[in-house]
Amino acid sequence: MTAGDSASGPRVLDGLDAVRAAVGTDLGPTGWVTLDAERVARFAAAAPGAPADSASPWLLLALTNLFMPEMVEVRGVSAGLNVGTGEVRFGDPVPVGARVRGRGVVAAADDARGGVQTTIRITVEVEDREAHAVVVDALSRWLA
User: Fold this and answer.
1) Contact, 136 vs 59, CB < 8 A?
2) What distance in Å separates the CA atoms of residue 124 and residue 93, rounded to the nearest whole number?
3) CB atoms within 10 A of CB 102
């Protein structure tokens, strides 16, 4: 299942110089994803201890990888790698049936071996709610 179409498509960055220059750039929002009972139950079955009546915070964290290609596309590089996360902050529980989407900002772009490493701060928003579901500093490396 895909996240759906974002309002404007991904932000395109052409080459490593564009990645370096993108610090402070807003990304998203993505399309909405419904946390239907089937998705929540499948995750709960795969992750012992995950709640069945609300979306596991780990499911919400995993969705940031679904949202990333809707937010940014880097061209003119040989590869883009997910190298992990920095800080992760979980918000309030999100009930089954809620809709969530991703919104990001390029928080940092630092030269790293073979290319540039970015920190993209992704906020998972919940429809009709002020509070976020999760905020994660996603670390990616873009190789020359």
Assistant:
1) no
2) 12
3) 30
- CATH pick for 11-143 out of 3.40.50.1010, 3.40.50.2300, 3.40.1160.10, 3.10.129.10: 3.10.129.10
SS (H, E, C) 20-81: HHCCCCEECCCCCEECCHHHHHHHHHHCCCCCCCEECHHHHHHHHHHHHHHHEEEECCCEEE
Q: pTM for this one?
A: 0.91
Q: Are 114 and 53 in contact (CB under 8 A)?
A: no
Sequence spans of domains, the chain = 11-143
The per-residue pLDDT for range 10-59, each reduced to its tens digit, is 999 999 999 999 999 999 899 999 999 999 989 888 887 777 678 999 99
Q: Which of 35, 40, 42, 30 is nearest to 6 (CA)?
A: 30
For 92-106, write each residue's pLDDT tens digit. Answer: 999 999 999 999 999
